[in-house]
């Protein structure tokens, strides 16, 4: 059962409990980090889909597998409320739950992404800031009329990333896609 299917008074009670749990994480943050690290080290993924093996392989290649947990979830997981999903994967808060989206410049006339580097943005994605950032990479040589960022079609996203809609990972993509990270993600801490 999803939280949003409960009566309002029960939803409110669960949200208060969520707040209390987040406060608890604040008092045990160092212990939480130690437990997370210990869990990362003892994980062994033997019975998992190929797409999970792909992410695991990329984590190994990036030498970050010891900082990651790959957690099997229920088939209806993405239908759950964000806080419920955070509890399921032992995230310190719902703010630690990040979403990957693939944006496409529908007016791009070339495939070259050289000169692109990681850039931090405050969420939500401001396509005007994205446009300005991308234009600055080429010293604004390319006119604004050649930029129009939109959420990529699921087929385009699958071809570029190798991941289906709803399960896009920034690690293990088919093509080298520039990753733009919301600044709020870089400021997350175990409370």
Strand count: 4
The run of helices and strands is HHHHEEHEHEH
Q: How many whole angstroms does the radius of gyration measure?
A: 19 Å
Q: What is the overall silhouette?
A: globular
What class do helices, strands and sheet pairing give?
mainly alpha
Low-confidence stretches: 113-122
Give me the number of helical elements. 7
Share of helix, binned? 25-40%
- State the end-to-end CA separation: 28 Å
Strand content: 5-15%
| Oligomerization | single chain
Indicate the topology.
Elements (H helix, E strand, L loop, with lengths): L7 H20 L1 H14 L7 H12 L20 H7 L14 E3 L13 E3 L5 H11 L11 E3 L2 H8 L18 E3 H4 L5
Parallel strand pairs: 2-4
Antiparallel strand pairs: 1-3
Walk me through the structure.
The protein is mainly alpha-helical. It contains 7 helices and 4 strands. It has a two-stranded antiparallel ribbon with strand order 1-3. A two-stranded parallel ribbon has the order 2-4. The chain is globular. The relative contact order is 0.15.
Keywords:
mainly alpha, two-stranded parallel sheet, 7 helices
What can be said about this structure in brief?
The protein has 191 residues and is mainly α. 40% of the residues lie in helices and 6% in strands.
